[in-house]
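In this supplementary section we document a worked example of the pipeline. Step one takes a protein sequence of length 168 as its only input; no multiple sequence alignment statistics are reported here. Step two produces a three-dimensional model, which step three serialises into structure tokens for compact storage. The input and output of this example are shown verbatim.
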Amino acid sequence: MRERSKRYITVFLCSLALFWAPVLSVGAEDYNALKDVSSVSTMFDFRDGNPTSALVHLKLIHDTYKDAAIRAVSDKPDFAVVFMASSVKLLSKNRSGLSAEDQKSLEAFDQVLEAMARDGIRLEVCMVAVSYFEVDPASLPKVLMQVSNGWISSIGYQKRGYAMVPVY
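The serialised model returned by step three reads:
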């Protein structure tokens, strides 16, 4: 009896998975914009300086990188994030004067940043903005590549064919 129950449960779960798999899987064919696209190279111009919305945006970039539709086009998409303007303040480990809610958002932000770096997403920070906003370069995470001017980096990516996505 016990073996029979296990078999019924297994058949039920497999049937359920077969039914829902087509509904839950989204591939490149579900996006007309991805038709005939053979690779994905994207640069995100990240300027959002609000801890809460910046966390949402950063998670969305990471989720997009891992999305099945993107992976159907490009097994290893080429993503770069260039932090410019007030977003550089969010990168600093110096978080004195921030509310508890903002600090909590930035702790999660740090975790997403680390996960993105582990996944191979290039992360750059504009040192012009770091200087302007008086962020101590030593307080920046090691996963960030420091570039003298984020606009020059952005120009380079675009000239190499990267799609530019603004994150303001």
